[in-house]
Specification:
The protein is an all-alpha fold and 281 residues long. The protein has ten helices and no strands.
Amino acid sequence: MRGAVRTALAAALAVPALAGATGCVMPDQVSSIQKDVAGIRSDLQQVRRDQAETTKRLEALETHPKVEGDQATKADMADVTTSISQLSQDVSIVDERLNDMGRRIERLSQQVQQAREMNQPGSGSLSQAPPAGGTQSGGTEPSSVSSSPGAGARPDPEALYNTAYADFSKGNYALAVSGFEEYFEKFPGTALADNALYWIGECHFSQGDFPEAVRAFDRLLEAYPDSDKAAAGNLKKGLAYLEQNEVGQAIVQLRYVVAEYPGSDEAKIARDKLTSLGASS
């Protein structure tokens, strides 16, 4: 996630200069991205603070004398488990916001490039657009035009995905699952199809339906084993097993995360969780 953070923030900060270089200023879009950069920075700082606090609590538990039936220790362990689960979800949400920002920056960059090309000598002016309902030169339809409503029309994939993610962010999990399922069904070959399956799992996890969450993460890992969401999916499977008191299976799963994705944020969370369970990584 750290590499994605640096890349997205650097690109976002470069957007105003990119827009200004063409003379085609898009203040609303630039302002929106800059505002989101500030929001993501704030969220990242909070995640890092939460991660540091959770680590301190785990270290304190490790040095706490183990007393059989110590209710206070059991309560602390349960609290740390909840914190780790929430931290994992927070990391995934920030990561998705970074991905979304990257897509927005790419679209803005394409718009700026188009403006540059249209302002080149001999390319025609901005006012010489095709008439409504017409086509571009050569008789081909503009690729950027989305399908119009009507029989056989398919929803815009980006709009469908963003709507589902917005529902997830608002806690409308049933709607989010429906939207992500529709996205995966209609656009299984796109770059965000694996993300859609991952967020279906997160929806079920957030609703407390842990068996269904495991099944959703399994769908992701079976269909897209090399997905950039594979580490997070494997981690959340382990946490879902724990929520069902399937401790043995959870330990196996968490050890797999540590072995398969060493150096990742997910591996660190898995190691911390294994330590809290008194299991080696």
